[in-house]
Amino acid sequence: MNENVLQMKNITKKFGTFTANDNISISLRKGEVLTLLGENGAGKSTLMNVLCGLYKATGGSIFIKGEKVKISSPKDSTGYGIGMVHQHFMLVEALTVLENIILGKTEDRALFIDRKGTKEKIEELSAKYGLGIDPDRKINQLSVGEQQRVEILKALWRNAEILILDEPTAVLTDEEATGLFEIIEKLTGDGKSVIFISHKMKEVLNISDRIAVLRAGKLVSEFKRGEADGSTLADLMVGRHMVESEYSKMDIDDGVVFSARNISYNKESKHSGLNNVSIDVRKGEILGIAGVDGNGQSELAQLATGLLDPDEGEIFLKGEKVTTFSAKRFIDSGVSHVPEYRNKMGLIGDMSVTSNLILKSEEDPKFAKYGGWMTDAKSARGYAEEQKERFDIRCSSVDQDTGELSGGNQQKVILARELSLTPDLLVAAHPIRGLDVGAAQFIHDQMISARERGCAILLISTDLSEVLLMADRIAVMYEGSIMGIYDGQKPPTSEISQAMAGKVQEPSA
């Protein structure tokens, strides 16, 4: 365990005048799990992108097994036995597992690929580390957890000795996360070394041999297993004492803003359909939708925002029956949306922070000139500066491309845009997925403020603790159906947990 397989010494990375990594030094030992912990934008991913050759360091040195190396490209990094599993997978969905693994690299320069031999090696690696992946299946046939294991398998096939896992559990169910931890134990038991990037304190404390805490681009502390508790780590991450949030719960009887009556959509499917769903969301309340991912929550969010048209049933907005289902129709009716995939559905990454903030307001007279033919750049930029301050969006400039921001700051851009429209209904799907404790608390505080202004909120989350913290009422979904609706003030957690597993009980409220 004492042998250093990696040392990054005095790494500095600047983007213009902005310093993302400031003189950071870390080491990684053979067979250990080193966790990088820090807020969104603390510099964790930037540091790992330097190690992977995606960025070139402004200063500092990298040593592999004591030898100083130069990493100028991902090919260099792979050659030194470094593999990274990114939070957003780098897979081609139409290709098979085998084809994705060998894409861009084969064992030799022969004209023909030894598919049989390669497949045997992939199957051998899969069995050795308990990955359970069939090389002949296509990526679009795999669950999110299986796709992640393909990424791990791809790195192992390329002889990775150092594996970087960037927010690996952000998109996994609890069961899949447990399976991932078992794989990590097998990898480290075999002498592989893992750099683990995460915001989830419980898993960090359980899996880490050492924890390095980054804040504002600097390494602020380092601990061995058992030397620090979750509260200490959270305080170091954000640079202040974190007080656990407690939100008061509301008991609202009237003022229904959104109503679904006997809604069905693709109801033959247990995992991508809805079957006879009826819910109400009232003015000034948060209705939380609890359940394991893939039980119809995505379809519910899309129906509540006009992206899907139900096969059966009726939807009412502010008492008026909806007859035309389109995103614009719902936006015009005062519906805002924080989508579950911020990069695919919530933002345009190669557009500026300013442009993303006014995406739904370009026709507003304060931003439009010459009859709407052009955007008033000065007004838009001034507005963006105000939103940057109000929502604590950390960027080098409001002219910066949104795709360059950390996940937490991207989420703040979405929330700023959606809440600034003063919606009657906010549909928020997994609003803190992949966010650190500071960013998550900020997002929650903003949602509570919106509720207190009278906004009705439909909160969809696979994190039961988030639903219990936030929701005034809790509806549980399983295989496209509502299993029960429960009081959020004194939630019966055992009943809710059983309902999430499909066990029907009489709801307590």
Description:
The protein folds into two domains: 4-238, P-loop containing nucleotide triphosphate hydrolases (Rossmann fold, 3-Layer(aba) Sandwich); 256-334 and 423-500, P-loop containing nucleotide triphosphate hydrolases (Rossmann fold). It is 32% helix and 25% strand. The protein is built from 17 helices and 22 strands. Strands 6-7-8-3-9-10 form a six-stranded mixed sheet, sandwiched between helices. Strands 16-19-20-13-21-22 form a six-stranded mixed sheet, with helices on both faces. The chain has a four-stranded antiparallel sheet with strand order 2-1-4-5, covered by helices on one side. A hairpin with an 8-residue loop joins β11 and β12. α14 packs parallel to α15 (437-452). The longest helix has 16 residues, at 174-189.
How would you concisely characterize the structure shown here?
With 509 residues, the protein is α/β, with parallel strands linked by helices. The protein contains 17 helices and 22 strands. Helix content is 32%, strand content 25%.
CATH C-level category of the largest domain: Alpha Beta
What is the second-level CATH architecture of the largest domain?
Answer: 3-Layer(aba) Sandwich
Largest sheet: 6 strands, mixed
CATH superfamily of the largest domain: P-loop containing nucleotide triphosphate hydrolases
Low-confidence stretches: none
> Helix fraction?
25-40%
Tally the beta strands.
Answer: 22
The N- and C-terminal alpha carbons lie at a distance of 54 Å
- Tell me the strand percentage band: 25-35%
CATH topology of the largest domain: Rossmann fold
Could you give the order of strands across the largest sheet? 6-7-8-3-9-10
Please report the number of helical segments: 17
Shape: globular
Radius of gyration: 24 Å
Would you tell me the structural class of the helices and strands? alpha/beta
Mean pLDDT: 87
What is the count of distinct domains? 2
